[in-house]
Amino acid sequence: MTFLLGSGAGFSGDRTDAAIPVVAELIRRGQPAALLFETLGERTLAAAHRARHDDPGSGFEPLLDELLAPVLADCLDNGIAILGNFGAANPAGACERVRVLAEQAGRGDIRIGHVQGDDIRSRLSAIDLLHWETESGEMPGEEALISANVYLGAAPLVEALSQGAEVVVTGRVADPALFLAPLVHHFGWAWDDWDRLAAGTMAGHLGECGAQVSGGYFADPGLKNVPGLATVGYPIIEVEEDGSLVVTKPPGTGGCVTERTVKEQLLYEVHDPGNYLTPDVVVDLSDARIVEIGPDRVAVSGIRGRPAPERLKTTVCYAGGWQGEAEISYAGPNAFGRARLAAEVLRERLTFRVPPELRSRFDIIGHASVFDSDAGELQQQSAAPENGDYRLRLAVGHPERRWVERATQELLALYCAGPAGGGGVRRQFQRRVCTASYLVKRSDVEAFATLYDATLNEATRNNERSHDHGAQ
Amino acid sequence: MVRSEAEVTVSLHRLAHARAGDKGERLNLALFAYDPRHFDVLMAQVTEARVQALFAHRGVSRVRRYPLPGLSGMNLVLDDVLQGGVNGALNLDGHGKTLSFLLLSMAIILPAALKTGNQG
């Protein structure tokens, strides 16, 4: 029997009404189904750890209520499992929030699976680490370290489902594992059934970015037209016991599922297509076939799998000083000349107002920016019309906040002391988070699931509170 | 522009679509021909060397190309092109998400016999 995988979100910050039509269609079909929320990017986790550090009750997906509240009761009533990495740096906190939401929906008896074991920060110095691929360099010192999380595979999520969890909350897991887990649980696939695990993993890969497979991040008007992008339907992936996949979307939604949308997403963030590494299987896409079998229905086949890698990827986040940005606009006659003069003035000011090791970059938005290098080679090689609408942007980085503040303040000062007609200054600075990736032995990772027990969590938090109190 | 009766120069944007993805300092650009008949032209002209030249100003250290004939496309993997990546870059687009369209700005010489609707 077909199992349906519905995507509810593809990143932290995604549309929070996307899951509603997906869940409506899963219910209408009446087939076994799961709803998946992928909301944890490489950097999102570091931000979550910082948030939890400042407020122990936070550190999970900030939009959790908005994402879950509209669909939670419908999913619980219809046996649609929800799995999400919205636990981020505080899965227990997210479990508690899910429990409260369920209670408000009249389901205080909800069973919530709590996946643990991805956070290895406390043991980082004691375990064997290899650099990831081409990376090198020293491990940051303890005071700079923010987080260290292993990309877990699907096994602890399957464990949670086997315990009867209706909602599974995780921190860091490989994104496709959210989708693979309900398939393994439902079909009983073996952990060495590599071709099926590869197919299930690619179902996850295709679905994990939400609308990116169903018309989002695709439109190029005139060449690639997408209808109804404002109400783009998030994907539903139909999976058979043999690993056959069909990508589709809810009827009546915008967007489109075509051979082209699926091709673009199949290779998204993939390097060697013959050797795509995940915790559960190494996937070979060399002979993948993508065929439109109906309107908004695309079949994917030919995916093969090989034994899973021996080590698991771990991403370490650490503090990397400060970065700042500031911008000012020039428009109308001679705007390009005035924007260039503003850049020259600012460069000269920085030579004597900030230390030489400050990293800086100048863009003239409207002429050359995102394609350009930090050195501005494209700007130097070309000119732009003098009469236009340009925005000078300064970006800076330094270990100390004060120099980032000072440099961006120098752009602000162009208001009164720079060229004529500058306006619309915006300025911001923030802590920079750096990441480094390593490979750890599977034997150094203890991943497991438990059913969330609110009373236990309350006790834990009380303990923490009294501990904090005692330390003061 | 007409080069000769037998060839025209077109933007790669007219022949193919692309999507960028990033991991750390590495960027992948998945490129697919709109028309499978153009796959051989892409293989002949969207070479590792030409992609390296197009991204030279970004400090690219290596380009590897993985052909995907079954999908009428290829995956291009560019190392050290993000000048710090999503976490460290001063570039507005630290992910390099916009760079699929830098690739699509490449000029391609197309035999006139292979010209189809998209090339205007």
How much helical structure, as a percent, in the residues of chain A? 25-40%
Helix content of chain B: 10-25%
CATH topology of chain B: Alpha-Beta Plaits
Q: How far is it from the N-terminal to the C-terminal residue of chain A, by CA?
A: 59 Å
Query: What is the total number of structural domains of chain A?
Result: 2
What is the structural class of chain A? Answer: alpha+beta
CATH architecture descriptor of chain B: 2-Layer Sandwich
Topology of this structure?
The complex is a heterodimer of chains A (472) and B (120).
Chain A: E1 3-9, H1 19-29, E2 33-37, H2 44-54, H3 64-68, H4 72-77, E3 81-84, H5 91-104, E4 112-116, E5 129-131, E6 145-150, H6 155-162, E7 167-169, H7 177-187, H8 194-207, E8 236-239, E9 245-248, H9 259-266, E10 276-277, E11 282-284, E12 289-294, E13 297-301, E14 304-306, E15 311-332, H10 335-353, E16 359-365, H11 377-381, E17 388-398, H12 401-412, H13 414-417, E18 423-441, E19 448-451, H14 454-471
Parallel strand pairs in A: 1-2, 2-3, 3-7, 4-7
Antiparallel strand pairs in A: 1-8, 4-19, 5-18, 6-15, 8-9, 9-13, 10-11, 11-14, 12-13, 15-17, 15-18, 16-17
Helix pairs in contact in A: 6-7, 7-8, 10-12
Chain B: E1 2-4, E2 7-11, H1 12-15, E3 16-23, E4 26-33, H2 39-45, H3 48-54, E5 62-68, E6 73-79, H4 85-88, H5 100-103, E7 107-111
Antiparallel strand pairs in B: 1-2, 2-7, 3-4, 4-6, 5-6
